[in-house]
Amino acid sequence: MIDNRKKLAIANFKMTLNMSFEIEKWMETFQKATERLELDKSEIVLCPQSALLSYFVEKINKSGVTFGTQNCFWESKGAFTGENSPVLTKSLGGKYVILGHSERRAYFGETNESINLKIKAALKASLKPVLCIGESGKEKKSDETMYVITKQFNECLAEISLAKMEEIILCYEPVWAISANNPDHLPDSNEVMEVKLLIKKLVMKSYGERVANKVRILYGGSVKGDNVEEVCVSAGMDGALIGGASLLPYDLVKVVKALNN
Ligand code: 13P
Asked: Ligand 1 in contact with 243 (CB < 6 A)?
């Protein structure tokens, strides 16, 4: 099956799996949970903290499981203490990089402009950017969802060529639905689908129908085995970006199986 038709289950571990016993336990459980899992219609992308990337690549060897990081810098190399180069992610075996996550926007001052630079650097390093866009709870309440998504889309993807756009994965992740933000409810499939259609229209407008049919649009925000049907499958999403539930390999596999069907 060609890459772009495969559903994506992207695990964003955030800043977890810090102690070696936790890492070993997770890996052991993941091996067991995925033993009989067929990954011909989907791909699991594991995005641990950057420092763990090469360990994951070395230890997990299963067809259909690929790797990525949760951020990268907008330059390839140089005097940028503490930053992570997209070239390093690529050379250690990474395929994807999550960019524009709302936690990076909130805590590290990332803007649509800096995310745009990071997307360009990631593409230059032959990584596939996973661009997160989504409105806050306040923006949703004041009915600004469509405006915010359109602005994020246009500014984050400024000057991205048609050929490069095919490499990008888009993820609708409403900030208010992320588990760490204690959501009191989640979007229903109609709400998710409505935003998916908007994103598809935006791709169509800037890049044409062929690219719009090719680019994958995921959903993120409290995805678990028991709600993936509603927030992803019924909404026609091409995959999920999974935070908390990715720490539970059996739940992650449940998500993948639902996406597969
Ligand atoms: P949760 O699945 O824990 O809500 O996290 C979502 C997320 O932020 C993934 O990027």
From this structure: yes
- Kindly state whether residue 189 falls inside one of the protein's structural domains: yes
Ligand 1 centre from 188 Cα, in Å? 16
Instruction: Point out the residues that are catalytic.
Output: 101, 173
Q: Tell me, what CATH number does 229's domain have?
A: 3.20.20.70
From ligand 1's centre to the CA of 78, what distance in Å?
Answer: 32
| C-alpha distances in Å from residue 122, one per residue of 20, 42, 199 | 29, 23, 21
pLDDT tens per residue, range 135-157: 999 999 999 999 999 999 999 99
Residue 94 maps to a domain: yes
State which ligand 1 atom lies nearest to the alpha carbon of 244: 3
The reply to whether 45 falls in a domain is no
E strand segments, 36-114: 42-47, 65-69, 96-99
Q: Report DSSP state, residue 100.
A: S
Q: Is 225 in the pocket of ligand 1 (CB under 6 A)?
A: no
Q: Is residue 92 part of a domain?
A: yes
163-222, pLDDT tens digit by residue?
A: 999 999 999 999 999 999 999 999 999 999 999 999 999 999 999 999 999 999 999 999
